[in-house]
Amino acid sequence: MRMTPASPDPKLPPVRINLMSDTQTRPTPGMREAMARADVGDEQIGDDPTTLALCERVANLLGKEAAVFLPSGTMCN
């Protein structure tokens, strides 16, 4: 586990960051509710409304006609 300062101030305690896995987190009740209410589809066939909206937003922010969502640095490579 990596320890990193919380701020440039060396007097403050370090912050623990665990990047081992996304399975280490536990969703809150509010997060579970949002997941249950979310519109879903298959992003592999261009049918997921959330992914499509994200790609469109990023393309607009960057002034491009299209964007692609890659959820990890490994997939981007």
Q: Short summary of the structure?
A:
With 77 residues, the protein is α+β, with helices and mostly antiparallel strands. It has three helices and two strands, in the order ββααα. The protein has a domain of 38 residues.
Order of helices and strands: EEHHH
Alpha-beta content class:
alpha+beta
Instruction: State the helical fraction.
Output: 25-40%
Number of strands: 2
Could you describe the 3D structure shown?
With 77 residues, the chain is α+β, with helices and mostly antiparallel strands. It has a domain at 40-77. Helix content is 35%, strand content 10%. The chain has three helices and two strands, in the order ββααα. The longest helix has 14 residues, at 49-62. It starts with a strand and ends with a helix.
Keywords:
3 helices, alpha+beta, 10% strand, 77 residues, single chain
List the helices and strands and how they pair.
Elements lengths: L1 E4 L8 E4 L11 H9 L11 H14 L10 H4 L1
